[in-house]
Design goal:
This protein is of the alpha/beta class. The chain has one domain (7-181). It contains seven helices and four strands. It has helices at 7-19, 39-42, 44-49, 56-66, 84-98, 112-123, 149-171; strands at residues 26-30, 74-80, 102-108, 129-135. Strands 1-2 form a two-stranded parallel sheet. Helix 5 packs across helix 6 and helix 6 packs parallel to helix 7 (149-171). It is globular and about 45 Å long.
């Protein structure tokens, strides 16, 4: 189950694991179609390039097909998501409805700690086994993160996000954030 964001590396790794027989299906969350209100902002690059509008679900299917995935084995959560916390809740609900017992969580190197923390908390008590697999983003160097501004920013953003998630979701017991419902 690849998390959204950094899709090239995560979707590619999901398909590799599927083709190697580690997974029978791929389930991925879908982003809300918030493009309706901020259509030009969210689709600016595509619009400038003259690419027709496609939903985030259509994009995901095209991305999986690009990597050679059999699309009959691609499924989407019932709930739309806007954060890693939402992804964990949506995937948990999807799996519980279908009696699934284990999953492979596919994250990027920089996102692994936070994603596992959130998924372990959200899945606590479900009996679902979470296996983690890192999709290596070749543009990011975790062992020398301080050498490039982009890498340092990613690390700092992740640590801020860890603190935020602990406080907001697990201390205050809040669900979605108000800015997620743009």
């Amino acid at each position: 189950m690849p998390l959204r964001g950094d899709e090239y590396w995560r979707f590619k790794k999901a398909v590799e694991l599927y083709k190697a027989g580690y997974a029978k299906i791929i389930v991925t969350p879908i982003f809300p179609e918030q493009e309706k209100k901020y259509h030009e902002y969210y689709n600016f690059e595509a619009l400038v390039l003259g690419v027709k509008d496609i939903s985030t679900k259509e994009f995901a299917l095209k991305a999986f097909a690009f990597f050679g995935m059999n699309l009959k084995d691609v499924y989407f959560t019932d709930e739309e998501v806007t954060s890693t916390y939402d992804e964990a809740v949506a995937i948990k609900n999807y799996m519980l409805k279908r009696g699934m017992k284990s999953m492979i969580l596919i994250t990027s190197t920089y996102n692994t700690r936070r994603a596992l923390m959130i998924f372990n908390w959200v899945f606590r008590g479900t009996g679902i086994k979470i296996n983690n697999f890192t999709a290596v983003n070749e543009l990011y160097n975790p062992s020398r993160w301080w050498e490039k501004e982009r890498d340092a920013k990613v690390i700092l953003d992740e640590y801020v996000a860890i603190v935020y998630n602990i406080f907001y979701h697990f201390v205050l017991h809040k669900g979605r954030t108000s800015f997620d419902d743009v």
